[in-house]
Write a structure and sequence with these properties.
mainly alpha; single chain
Length: 103
C-alpha cells in the first residue's frame, strides 16, 4: 500500500525509538532507528495503518533487538504482522506477546 507519513512524524517515531533504547541501556544511533522504522513500515505495507500502529511495531522490533531475541521468534512476529488485516489485529498481537496467562 506504500503509505508514507510526513517526515516530521517519521523523525518523531525514530527519535522515540532512540529514547526508548537509551532507557533500556542500549543506545541506538540514528541510522539504526531509521532501519527499524523502515522495517516496521515494510511489515505494514500490506494494509492501511495508523501512525501509532507503526510506532508500536517499530518499538516491538526494537525490544526484540535489544533483548537479543532468538531469530525464530523475530521471524514469527514478522510473519504474524504480515498476516494481520487490520490495526486492531496488530494491536491484539502485540498485546498477546506481553500478556502473561495464568494457568
Amino acid at each position: 500500500m506504500d503509505r508514507s507519513f510526513p517526515l516530521d512524524l517519521q523523525r518523531s517515531i525514530q527519535q522515540s525509538l532512540q529514547e526508548i533504547a537509551s532507557q533500556m541501556g542500549q543506545p541506538l544511533h540514528e541510522g539504526a532507528a531509521e532501519r527499524l522504522y523502515q522495517d516496521a513500515s515494510a511489515l505494514l505495507d500490506h494494509l492501511s495503518h495508523e501512525p501509532l500502529t507503526l510506532a508500536r511495531v517499530a518499538g516491538t522490533l526494537l525490544v526484540y533487538q535489544v533483548e537479543d531475541t532468538e531469530p525464530e521468534e523475530l521471524e514469527w512476529f514478522k510473519s504474524q504482522v504480515q498476516q494481520c488485516s487490520s490495526d486492531e489485529e496488530i494491536e491484539e498481537l502485540i498485546e498477546s506477546i506481553h500478556r502473561v496467562d495464568a494457568l
